[in-house]
Design brief:
Number of helices: 16
Radius of gyration: 26 Å
Number of strands: 10
Catalytic activity: (R)-mevalonate + 2 NAD(+) + CoA = (3S)-3-hydroxy-3-methylglutaryl-CoA + 2 NADH + 2 H(+)
Shape: globular
InterPro entries: HMG_CoA_Rdtase (IPR002202), HMG_CoA_Rdtase_bac-typ (IPR004553), HMG_CoA_Rdtase_cat_sf (IPR023074), HMG_CoA_Rdtase_NAD(P)-bd_sf (IPR009023), HMG_CoA_Rdtase_sub-bd_dom_sf (IPR009029)
Structural class: alpha+beta
CATH architecture of the largest domain: Alpha-Beta Complex
Helix content: 40-55%
Protein name: 3-hydroxy-3-methylglutaryl coenzyme A reductase
Strand content: 15-25%
CATH topology of the largest domain: 3-hydroxy-3-methylglutaryl-coenzyme A Reductase, Chain A, domain 2
CATH class of the largest domain: Alpha Beta
EC number: 1.1.1.88
Strand order of the largest sheet: 3-8-10-9
Family: Belongs to the HMG-CoA reductase family.
Order of helices and strands: HHHEEHEEHHHEEHEEHHHEEHHHHH
Length: about 425
Amino acid sequence: MKWSGYYKLDWQDRIQYLVENHVIDATQAKLMAENYSAVGDQQVENYLYNFGVPMGLLTDIEINGEHKSVPMATEEPSVIAAANNGARMLNQGDGVHAAFKQRLIRGQVIAINLDDTGAFQHYVQKHTAQLLAVANHAHPSMEARGGGAKDIVIEPLDEKTVAVDVLVDPCEAMGANVVNTMAEAVAQDLRSVGFEILMGILSNYATEALIEANVAIPVAALKTKQGMAGADVAQRVAQASYMEQLTPYRAVTANKGIMNGVEAVVLASGNDTRAVNAGMHAYAAESGQYKGLAQWTVSDDGQFLNGSIKMPLMLGVVGGSIGIVPAVQLNQQIMGNPDAQTLSAIVAGVALAQNLAALRALVSSGIQAGHMALQAKSLALQVGATVAEVPLLVAALEKSEQINQASAQALLANIRKEKR
């Protein structure tokens, strides 16, 4: 099978090529046709079809005094249920308060093979205003909106290498394309005066865009259906949270749980999940040991469980695919068409909700009880239950001693036998 020139084919010819070469059959080609998107065909090379991810709703979370409904795109059954559970507890206080101290994105211009790094740094310092002007001239519309290149930071990397970091305010955009354009312009300007420049590229480690979110929850709101008092839950949540600061083995799993919610909202909002994920995990290790991003403590008077999180987060509400994908525009509308800072505050709030729900479950009933109950629907579909059979099989699985594929198959066979 020869792939040369495949990218030049139009969509129908791409699909037909796969059928003719027995990569897929006619039924599978029909499935692709049913999930075709003209927008998708323009977004990626060698486009085949849109791969759907279920979209659910976090119905109500209070962020900076406003109640928000939040679309979340995820395939994992327990994520949205946990987010709603956590948000209900967060809302029992005065909600989540979140803000940036600054919101800038960094572009790096790497100078290499320098004979005198000190002389290079002196040149950059002396010509900072000129270099900022070069950056802004490369994308003047950003400066016109009040954003653009704001500062330059010099970062020596070794005895012959220096990074010239351009800090950019991207306004309501995430800013990747803007910063790349500016970084390349600065790189070319430095080349023109004789310096060897390896590259100019943005950094997704958004340490100049750290959002901080805090919440205080009355301990009474944490009591469980199994009878554990809220004060006891709060103490155990705080102890479990402390474990996330002590061992990376606990921290990685905790942060994965946080990212369940973060990625679901970032994806639903049309932003770059990979960039956010990489930055989050780098920040979790910024002390030299990988730690949990969220922290929970009990107030001195024992009346409140206090939660906080600080994380690098550069999101946009314009640019990229945000303005061209109808589903993204729909999700933005459901959230009340937030600006970039509000969207980031929502994500930080969801992160706290997700972590709290997980910790409360861990220290009370255990994580598996609720998780496996939610997995039952997926398991029912996996073993071939029809839409009408799913609720019957789920109910049977919940009463079963085991929730696994073998028991699901046996229970489904009994359900069908009883129907005869």
